[in-house]
Amino acid sequence: MIIHSTQKAGAAGLEDHSAKGLVAMSAYDAPFDSERVYRYTVPPGLETQIVIRTLPNAECRVYSAKNDGPKLSAYSDPDGFLELSVRPLAESDEIAQWCVDAATGNASAQHLLEIRSSHQPTQQMPLPPAQARPVPKRGARSIPPLELDDCLSLSDEELFERGYPSRPNPEIAPSAFDSWRRFVSAPVTFVEPNIVSRPDVSRTRRDLDQDADPRSFQESNNWSGYQVLANTGTFDYVYGEWLLPPALAGTFNKKTFSTLWIGLDGSGTPDLVQAGTEGDGILAGVTFMSFFYPWTLLLPQQDSAQMINNFPMKVGDRIMWSLFTAADAASHPSINGALAIFSILNNGTGQYSRVTTPRGSTTVLGAQADWIMERPTVNGGHADLANYGTATIKDPTAYAENPTRLVRYLDGNSDEITMVSPDERLLSTVTPVDITTMQFTWHNFA
Predict the structure, then answer these.
(1) What share of the chain has pLDDT > 90, as a percent?
(2) Cα→Cα distances 291→186, 237, 278, Å
(3) Which of 226, 321, 376, 395 supports an S-S bond with 409, CB 3.0-4.6 Å?
């Protein structure tokens, strides 16, 4: 058991482990070991990615071996890789020990992660392997880069058939098109999404009185960001890109959550179409541990976040999200389309994925376009907001129908939303940088 491994974590045990060649071996190369010990030195004050090899599609609990703090919920991918982000507050001689308990329906595994915070690695506790993340083994295919002429001349249907992500309209949204063009001009990997429902994490709308003007409600307990308001049937496409921000906890708020997303509707409407990235963090001793993932959601028919557990990301990766409603993934956006289509691109890995969700009986009003930082609802209540520092959304744009045109976040009837706690503590604000960029600032946990 893992406790036995912990008891062997003295100098002699470390030397023996190193002699077996297991200390510096990447989790990508190592065979699966249900009681594997990982020992690394990581620099203080910086986000460091740690990869653990465990059971495929496992729900994992990550917590201090002292069992004196909260537990972080994380999930491994279909190949059994679990990616965590570690950030020690300061240099320390104390070895931080973290337990990782993984479980599926019929199996379980336990691992020990030992972290030494220093700028000087040792032979027994080296830096984590500096190895590029591999292409997923399941549900992934490589796609060759596109030439500029093809970026412009291929039809949407041809791009879809060849496996490329949805192309922003170069005439309506030239900046978003340029980001897309740079992405597909390098080798691309399409990842078939592996969806895991997160029943513990849900999203909530901005509740308004039936006859209220959303512009009169510029404070929210769970949202901060911008929302462009229009008539029903206006918007059918939303786009935004950002660098994945950190998700840090605090001395008195040791488990925190934050999610950055784009969407359609959600203020006083029955529907809400969303896609974003979430960061969940805990603090034990002087070390932060975080888990990041992308997600989609279509309210009201889905009641919890739909996590893509095989699309890795780390702090600083440039993420590009688009969502729209259409008849199919190769069609032009249409409010009356039968599908909600979500596309995510990660410039840090060269990977992208697409989630297609039947609209069913949900009527997408298309009256609001959203770019939001949220503290999600966790186990029925608003979570403490993770310290994300500052974050920006670039090219926050939407398409409007009849006539088809580009709408930027400051165009027209634009609502700036500030997140405050029920006791009026300022939690998160947003400010315009320019017409193409908004900036979020964290203030308090709760």
Answers:
(1) 74
(2) 28, 29, 8
(3) 226
Contacts of 309 (CB under 8 A, 6+ apart): 57, 75, 76, 77, 78, 194, 195, 196, 293
| Token code pair at residue 223 | 């949202």
Q: Do residues 203 and 272 touch, judged by C-beta distance below 8 A? A: yes
Supply the DSSP string of 375-417, one letter for each residue. --EETTEEPPBPB--EEEEEEEEEEETTTTEEEETTSSEEEEE
The strand pair at 37-42 and 108-117 is best described as parallel
CA gap 82, 36 in Å, rounded: 13
**The token pair that represents 183 in the structure block:** 């992405």
Q: What is the pLDDT of residues 369-397, one digit of tens each?
A: 999 999 999 998 999 999 999 999 999 99
Can you list the alpha helix ranges (DSSP code H) found in 58-147? Answer: none
For residue 34, give the nearest of 112, 98, 111, 113 by alpha carbon: 111
Residue 98 to residue 290: CA distance in whole angstroms: 12
Contact criterion met (CB below 8 Å) for 328 and 166? no
The pairing of strands 37-42 and 59-64 is unpaired
> pLDDT: is 30 or 393 the higher one?
393
Q: How far apart are CA 292 and CA 307, in angstroms?
A: 10
**This prediction's pTM:** 0.91
Rounded distance, CA 240 to CA 176, Å? 8
